[in-house]
């Protein structure tokens, strides 16, 4: 009779299995089974792969979390941080700043909201009505080190609608405060004014996350990104200048590094250098006589330009240079700087120059 032997599952296979297990079970159950299972459940590579598969992306590609498990659960638990956003619990969580006219009220929507679950909303009066709410990010699970390290994007969104029978103005301001309550960043769009006798439709005020904006820009022609999108506002300029944006364009369009160890300091420059890759020879087929070329030797019946004696694989080639029975040589000098390849780029990247001649 043979004694049973221990069976050791390779850790990469175990990791693939864990990727199909609910995350809380990985932490609360799988991790406690044995040393190997704990090692896999604590791997940064495991939680990084979960983030990739479930679409939790970094806002800034240059800022990589030191703890991918923390980043994963923070991303998974994204939620509305406002307490009582619809007024279903009266004014709990809110501070009334101004309460003019007939004051703040809570009523059913006058017009159905796009979200059928919204059955109540806050209502203002004919005098100025303002309310505010302070959100403590630490109490919501975002500790200081994570906020300093990752600076996660906070999405701002609010729905508003006017009364149909009177004019009104909508104002919103969102401030990000530090631990001393000093303003770090502010979102203050222009006020929206509604005339009397309007259609009282629901509108949404929002701050578009930069990673979503980056994805949109990836579907816009590159020259439009630089010449148009980049000039719209500060946020659009930030995305259009991101190294991560141009690096992703390179990846999607198949522009790879010749040397993996040589990473460009300017991915935008690298992208356009790759995109504008072309034959640097002027007049390579002789369609413009000998323009661009220097005749070095011209023996026998000298250089000529004729139609190909045999069809070229490229049907567009209808002319070619022809030599004689004696030595014929020609040359051409290409100035890489004039072609857009500056010295720093050439020194840094040492791009591969493909040499080909028929």
Description:
Among the domains are: 11-75, Monooxygenase (Up-down Bundle), CATH 1.20.1280; 95-208, Galactose-binding domain-like (Jelly Rolls); 211-275, Monooxygenase (Up-down Bundle), CATH 1.20.1280.50. The protein has 358 residues and is of the alpha+beta class. Strand 7 and strand 8 (183-187) form a beta hairpin. It has helices at residues 11-18, 23-28, 35-41, 44-54, 68-76, 144-150, 210-217, 222-227, 234-240, 243-253, 267-275, 343-349, and strands at residues 95-99, 105-107, 121-123, 129-132, 157-160, 168-170, 174-177, 183-187, 192-194, 203-206, 294-298, 304-306, 320-322, 328-331. The strands form 7 sheets. It has a two-stranded antiparallel sheet. A two-stranded antiparallel sheet has the order 2-3. A two-stranded antiparallel sheet has the order 5-10. The chain is elongated. It is 27% helix and 15% strand. Helix 4 (44-54) runs parallel beside helix 5 (68-76), helix 7 crosses helix 9 and helix 10 (243-253) packs parallel to helix 11 (267-275).
The main sheet orders its strands as 1-4
Please work out how many helical segments DSSP would assign.
12
Query: CATH homologous superfamily of the domain at 95-208, by name?
Result: Galactose-binding domain-like
Compute the CA-based radius of gyration. Answer: 32 Å
* CATH topology name of the domain at 95-208: Jelly Rolls
The oligomerization state is single chain
- The portion of residues forming beta strands comes to 5-15%
Q: List the secondary-structure elements in sequence, H or E.
A: HHHHHEEEEHEEEEEEHHHHHEEEEH
Shape: elongated
**How many DSSP-defined strands?**
14
């Amino acid at each position: 009779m043979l004694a049973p032997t221990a069976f050791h599952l390779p850790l990469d296979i175990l990791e693939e299995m864990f990727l199909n297990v609910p995350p809380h079970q990985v932490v609360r159950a799988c991790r406690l089974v044995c040393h190997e299972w704990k090692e896999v459940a604590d791997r940064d590579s495991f939680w990084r792969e979960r983030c990739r598969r479930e679409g939790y992306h970094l806002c800034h590609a240059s800022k990589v979390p030191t703890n991918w498990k923390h980043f994963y659960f923070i991303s998974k638990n994204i939620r509305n941080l406002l307490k009582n956003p619809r007024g279903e619990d009266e004014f709990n969580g809110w501070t009334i700043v101004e309460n003019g006219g007939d004051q703040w009220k809570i009523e059913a929507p006058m017009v159905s909201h796009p979200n059928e679950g919204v059955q109540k909303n806050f209502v203002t009066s004919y005098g100025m009505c303002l309310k505010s709410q302070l959100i403590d990010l630490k109490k919501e699970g975002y500790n200081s080190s994570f906020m300093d390290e990752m600076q996660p994007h906070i999405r701002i969104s609010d729905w508003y609608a006017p009364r149909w029978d009177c004019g009104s103005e909508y104002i919103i301001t969102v401030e990000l405060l530090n631990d001393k309550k000093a303003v770090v960043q502010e979102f203050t769009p222009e006020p929206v004014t509604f005339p009397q006798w309007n259609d009282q439709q629901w509108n949404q005020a929002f701050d578009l996350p930069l990673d979503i904006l980056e994805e949109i820009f990836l579907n816009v022609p590159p020259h439009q990104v630089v010449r148009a999108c980049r000039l719209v506002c500060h946020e659009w300029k930030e995305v259009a200048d991101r190294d991560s944006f141009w690096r992703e364009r390179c990846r999607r369009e198949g522009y790879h590094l010749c040397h993996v160890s040589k990473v460009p300091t300017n991915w935008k420059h690298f992208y356009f250098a790759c995109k504008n890759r072309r034959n640097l020879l002027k007049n390579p087929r002789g369609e413009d006589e000998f323009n661009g070329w220097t005749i070095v030797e011209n023996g026998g019946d000298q250089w000529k330009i004729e139609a190909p004696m045999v069809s070229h694989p490229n049907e567009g080639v209808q002319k070619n240079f022809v030599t004689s029975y004696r030595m014929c040589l020609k040359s051409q000098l290409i100035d890489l700087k004039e072609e857009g390849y500056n010295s720093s780029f050439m020194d840094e990247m040492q791009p591969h120059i493909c040499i080909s001649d028929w």
